[in-house]
């Protein structure tokens, strides 16, 4: 499996900070809840680096609930984390595809919920597209 098989990445014309705010607004507009956001830049960048790394955790409780009811450990994949990173010239928004990751980890418990996984993918991708 390659990285592109389980991630969805879009480029943004915004700065990392602007992209974070845009993801926040797009997620809320789509009915998703913002669980938290984090500036990871100081932890991962060197003093002379232009690297900015931010993340925002989003969740749609009505979509998450059936997974937790089927298997409590599925909550390890929640909330959905959107990574926002920039090297100063390019900003990217990235997310793991729940429809790929969750069946790998919880094959039996999510089998009956594959339609919901496809919906979660679609909604997250729409949020990122709207935010870029």
Defining traits:
single chain, 132 residues, alpha+beta, TATA-Binding Protein, five-stranded antiparallel sheet
Short description:
Helix content is 47%, strand content 26%. It is α+β, with helices and mostly antiparallel strands and 132 residues long. The protein has a single domain (3-131), classed as TT1751-like domain (TATA-Binding Protein, 2-Layer Sandwich).
Structural summary, described in words:
The longest helix is centred in the C-terminal third of the chain and has 18 residues, at 114-131. Helix 2 (16-29) packs across helix 7. The mean pLDDT is 94. The protein is globular, with a radius of gyration of 15 Å. A five-stranded antiparallel β-sheet has the order 1-5-4-3-2. With 132 residues, it is an alpha+beta fold. It has one domain (3-131): TT1751-like domain (TATA-Binding Protein, 2-Layer Sandwich). The protein has seven helices and five strands; from the N terminus they run αβαβαβαββααα.
